[in-house]
Design brief:
This protein has 249 residues and is α/β, with parallel strands linked by helices. It has ten helices and 13 strands.
């Protein structure tokens, strides 16, 4: 099974290096961070990159994008495609998009995804974001157990799809404030231990003092050591940071 694992490039050599060569198929990769750090833009970039040939860091396949926060923008797909010398119309047609209106609809979309994945040669499944609906619908401690059970089942369904179809599974996640944290990160990913245990690779994204530059921190992985890398978000998508920009950090 390990021999059949493929890797998808993020568009940044430094992030790919952090992840051991790119995002793995057959696993869930979670990107989490505060609003506006570029999680959704990274997902857009992956939807374009997955359509590139394998020798160029892609998987020569399509993408399934489940949107829970109305963050998908075709304009990003057009700019990213043109920057990479790809036909925007062709790239857009290979992205199967669906907006999830509530948590039950989100679960249903994934439960019924088998045929869509087979018919459209899907090699990337994106859920952006994973916990948004669950957090808004399951309020209070008395509903926490039910919420976590549904999240757990939802994530295990995603894992099975990733393994059966040898696809990359990506989820974005919101964060919660930690007012009791003085010497560690002041935020943590939503979803608790259920999401933490089920995600095979977890990457925390945060801002720097320089506008477009971000820090990607590998928080946990099944086999990779923790580490940090810089990347930046431009109008062309996800790119590497130049040496002179690194020296200013």
């Amino acid at each position: 099974m390990r021999e059949s694992v493929l890797r998808l490039s993020s568009g940044s050599k430094t992030i790919d290096e952090l992840l051991g060569g790119g995002l793995e198929t057959q696993t869930i990769t979670e990107f989490y961070g505060q609003y506006g750090v570029g999680k959704s833009i990274l997902c857009h970039q992956l939807c374009v990159n997955v359509q590139k040939p394998v020798d160029q860091g892609g998987l020569n396949g399509g993408a399934l994008y489940i949107d829970t926060e109305q963050t998908f923008r075709p304009e990003w797909i057009v700019r990213m495609s043109k920057h990479l010398g790809m036909d925007p119309d062709s790239v857009a047609r290979n992205i199967i998009y669906s907006e999830a209106y509530n948590s039950d609809h989100q679960i249903l979309l994934l439960d019924k995804a088998d045929q869509i994945i087979k018919e459209n040669n899907v090699h990337l499944i994106v859920v952006d974001s994973l916990t948004a609906h669950f957090r808004s619908e399951y309020l209070g401690r008395e509903m926490l157990a039910e919420r976590q059970q549904k999240l757990n089942k939802h994530l295990h369904r995603l894992t099975r799809l990733a393994r059966v179809f040898n696809t990359v599974a990506v989820v974005t996640n919101q964060v919660m404030s930690r007012p009791d944290a003085f010497f560690t990160m002041a935020v943590e990913a939503a979803g608790g231990h259920i999401v933490a245990h089920t995600s095979h690779t977890r990457v925390f994204i945060r801002r720097t003092a320089s506008g477009p530059v971000r820090i990607a921190r590998l928080v946990s992985s099944t086999y990779l050591p923790e580490g940090e890398r810089l990347f930046k978000i431009t109008e062309n998508g996800i790119e590497d940071v130049e040496e002179e920009e690194v020296s200013r950090k």
